[in-house]
Specification:
- Pfam families: NAD_binding_1 (PF00175).
- InterPro entries: FAD-bd_FR_type (IPR017927), FNR_nucleotide-bd (IPR039261), MRET (IPR050415), OxRdtase_FAD/NAD-bd (IPR001433), Riboflavin_synthase-like_b-brl (IPR017938).
- This protein has about 260 residues and is α/β, with parallel strands linked by helices.
- The protein is built from 6 helices and 12 strands.
- The strands form 2 sheets. The protein has a 6-stranded antiparallel beta sheet. A 6-stranded parallel beta sheet has the order 10-9-8-7-11-12, with helices on both faces.
- α3 links the parallel β8 and β9.
- α4 runs parallel beside α5.
- The protein starts with 12 loop residues before the first strand and ends in a 9-residue tail after the last helix.
- About 35% of the residues are buried.
- The structure holds flavin-adenine dinucleotide.
- Flavin-adenine dinucleotide binds next to β4, β5, α1 and α2.
- Flavin-adenine dinucleotide (FAD) binds next to β4, β5, α1 and α2.
Length: about 260
Amino acid sequence: MSTATPNPARPVVEHACQVLAVSPLSKDTYQIELETPAGSTLAYDAGQHLQLELDVNGDGQYQSLSYSIANSVNPDQPRRLQLIIQNGSDFAGKILNRLSDLNDNKANLKVALPMGRAYLQTDLGLPHLLVAAGSGIAKIKAITEEIVRQKPDAEVHIYWSNRQADEFYLLDAFQDWAAQHDNLHFTPILESANADWTGRSGFIYQVIQEDFDALEDVQAYLCGSPQMVYGTIDQLELKGLKEKNCYSDVFEYAPREQKARV
Ligand SMILES: Cc1cc2nc3c(=O)[nH]c(=O)nc-3n(C[C@H](O)[C@H](O)[C@H](O)COP(=O)(O)OP(=O)(O)OC[C@H]3O[C@@H](n4cnc5c(N)ncnc54)[C@H](O)[C@@H]3O)c2cc1C
């Protein structure tokens, strides 16, 4: 596991944001556009997340909710934040309803950022593996934007897994990056094979294992459930991936026991 420390140059700041838009990306996933007030400055690293302070049930009880920031800092829209939220439960549905209410009423939303140590911090001269499951693509999108900005010829291998073929809502963006950058490779993966799907299928680690002989020098950013992240790392260690070269939010919010070494 990476032992990177938080960037001390970036203290956590609270902003009263406007919810500019809540738009469907697919049947179950929404893109949220936020904007900080005029005169404010946004400071975060690609791959960090933020916390929304939201009265989810409308009963005056505010909850802190973590979401990956889906865009890298955009000099053309320096106060803009993008989120990708999956409507995977009644709770997530209530969150999306509250955000829509705030958008309709032009009311402010309290947002704290930046959070998280698993931001882009590796030598872009080394090969990079970016792995996402479901809404984990939000963080991987921000990291990809930043890599392309800093080093357009960096070697990057992106894998994105979903359960449903209609959940690949960012396919065009990633396919365009792959078409424009010879060393950037993008592979969407459907978890179970399906007659309507002509792409790869299976567990993410299986597809990556098929594609690589050795992963010794690879720097990996992984985003998804703790089960997916730890399972993928364990399987890819068989191909030489080193956990010290891996970066993921799960190391902070769902740490596991140190593995026994033989
Ligand atoms: C650091 C962090 C970042 C999160 N970012 C997002 C996000 O960008 N979009 C989102 O819909 N939910 C994200 N979540 C989950 C979110 O905070 C709420 O738990 C969720 O919206 C509540 O819905 P649920 O009950 O269906 O969530 P749960 O059943 O708790 O499901 C959580 C979902 O969030 C996904 N997720 C977990 N960590 C991340 C991450 N770092 N980036 C992206 N997805 C993640 C999981 O793959 C899973 O699909 C994040 C959680 C954490 C701890």
